[in-house]
Specification:
Layout: E1 13-15, H1 24-32, E2 38-39, E3 43-44, H2 45-49, H3 53-58, E4 68-73, H4 77-89, E5 94-99, H5 104-107, H6 119-132, E6 137-142, H7 152-161, E7 167-170, H8 185-192, E8 200-203, H9 209-219, E9 223-226, H10 236-244, H11 255-289, H12 297-305, H13 309-323
Parallel strand pairs: 1-9, 2-4, 3-4, 4-5, 5-6, 6-7, 7-8, 8-9
The protein binds flavin mononucleotide (FMN).
Length: 324
C-alpha cells in the first residue's frame, strides 16, 4: 500500500529533535510559541524492537503536538523496518530516519551520519522502511560525510526516488560535528535542482528571525528547522512567523515574559515528570532563559542546587523583584 502524503503548512518552522532536550514538556512550550512541527528525541531501532521502556516512553506525545514525527536511527534493514512498524503503531504523523547524527555512540556503529560512507546500504534501508509503513517517511541528514565527499545534491535525489517525502539538511558534514559554521550554500544548490519536488528543510545555526527570513530568501528552502536557539528562547518561532509569514516586525520578550515562560516550563516539568525529575530536568534550561541578566550568578547557582519546589518558586519571586 502507498504511504499517505505529508501535509504541512506552506512554510513550516520545525523544532529540531534534540536528545535530552526536546522532551514532551519542551515541545509543548515550543508549540505554544509557534513551532509548527515537532519530533521525538531520536530512538534507537535496536532498543525499540527490544521493547526498552525508557525508549518507548520518549516516544509518547499528545494530540496537541501534531504534526509529530518519531525519529529512529539504526544500521540494519530488518531492525529498522521492525522499529518503524512499532513507531507507526504509536500513530505519529510521520517517521523520520536519522542519517545525520555524528556522535560516536551512533555514528561509530554506522548509524546516523556514520552510514553516509555507505550510501547503497543507506538507500536500501531507507527504501525498506518506506515500504514497511503506510505513513510518510522523512530523512534528516547532513551535507555529506566529509568536505571531500559533500554529496547532498545527488543523495537527496536518490532519497526522493526511494519514497522519502521531506529532507532536512543540517549544513555541516559528519566530520565537522558542530564545529565551524553551517554552510547553507549547498542546501540552496539542492533547492535549484529541478528534479527535486519534495520539501527541503534547512537547518543549522539559525539564531534570529531576521537570519531565518534572509536564509529563506537566499536559499529558497521550504521550511526552517531550529534547534539550539530555541532553548531558553522558544519565542524564536513566533518571531520567525511574524517576519516571514505575517510580514510584521517581531516583538521581543521582556524579562517578565522570560520569567513567566520559565515558570510555566517548570510547572509543566513537575506535573509531567514528578518533583525530583521535574526539578532536575529544568536545570539545563535556566541559564538559557536568563541569559543576559546581569549579576545573575548567585541566583543561578541557587536555581541549580535547590531540590525543593517552594524554594525554587521563592527564587523565581526574587528574580521578578530584581529584574522585572
Ligand atoms: C543536545 C543536542 C541533541 C541533539 N539530538 C538530536 C537528535 O536526537 N536527532 C537529530 O536528528 N539531531 C539531533 N541534534 C542535532 C539538531 O537536531 C540540529 O540538527 C543541530 O543542532 C543544528 O541545528 P541548530 O544549529 O539549529 O541547533 C542534536 C543537537 C543537540 C545540540
Amino acid at each position: 500500500m502507498l504511504n499517505s502524503k505529508i501535509n504541512f503548512l506552506s512554510f513550516p518552522l520545525l523544532l529540531a529533535p534534540m536528545e535530552d532536550v526536546t522532551d514532551a514538556v519542551f515541545r509543548k512550550i515550543c508549540k505554544d510559541c509557534g513551532a509548527d512541527v515537532v519530533f521525538s528525541e531520536f530512538a534507537s531501532a535496536d532498543a525499540l524492537i527490544r521493547n526498552v521502556k525508557p525508549t518507548l516512553e520518549k516516544l509518547q506525545f499528545d494530540e496537541t503536538e501534531r504534526p509529530f514525527g518519531i525519529q529512529i536511527f539504526g544500521n540494519e534493514i530488518n531492525t529498522m523496518c521492525e522499529a518503524a512498524i512499532i513507531a507507526q503503531s504509536l500513530h505519529p504523523d510521520f517517521i523520520d530516519i536519522n542519517w545525520g547524527c555524528p556522535v560516536k555512540k551512533v555514528a561509530a556503529k554506522s548509524a546516523g551520519s556514520g552510514m553516509l560512507q555507505n550510501i547503497p546500504l543507506l538507500l536500501s534501508i531507507t527504501k525498506a522502511v518506506v515500504k514497511s509503513v503506510q505513513i510518510p517517511v522523512t530523512v534528516k541528514t547532513r551535507l555529506g560525510y566529509d568536505l571531500q565527499s559533500e554529496m547532498i545534491t545527488d543523495f537527496a535525489e536518490k532519497l526522493q526516488d526511494v519514497g522519502i517525502q521531506m529532507i532536512t539538511v543540517h549544513g555541516r558534514t559528519k566530520t565537522q560535528m558542530y564545529k565551524g559554521v553551517a554552510d547553507w550554500t549547498l542546501i540552496g544548490k539542492l533547492k535549484q535542482n529541478p528534479r527535486i519536488h519534495i520539501p527541503i528543510i534547512g537547518n543549522g545555526d539559525i539564531v534570529s528571525a531576521q537570519q531565518a527570513a534572509d536564509y529563506q530568501q537566499l536559499y529558497a528552502v521550504d521550511g526552517i528547522m531550529i534547534g539550539r536557539s530555541a532553548i531558553g528562547n522558544p519565542w524564536i518561532f513566533k518571531q520567525c512567523k511574524d517576519l516571514i509569514i505575517n510580514n510584521i516586525q517581531p516583538s521581543y520578550p521582556s524579562n517578565k515574559d522570560r520569567l513567566n515562560i520559565c515558570k510555566q516550563h517548570f510547572q509543566l516539568s513537575i506535573a509531567t515528570k514528578g518533583d525530583f525529575y521535574g526539578i532536575l530536568n529544568m536545570r539545563k534550561h535556566y541559564k538559557h532563559y536568563f541569559s543576559g541578566f546581569e549579576n545573575f550568578k548567585d541566583l543561578k547557582i541557587r536555581l541549580l542546587t535547590s531540590n525543593n519546589i517552594s524554594q525554587i518558586e521563592d527564587i523565581f519571586q526574587q528574580i521578578e523583584d530584581k529584574y522585572c
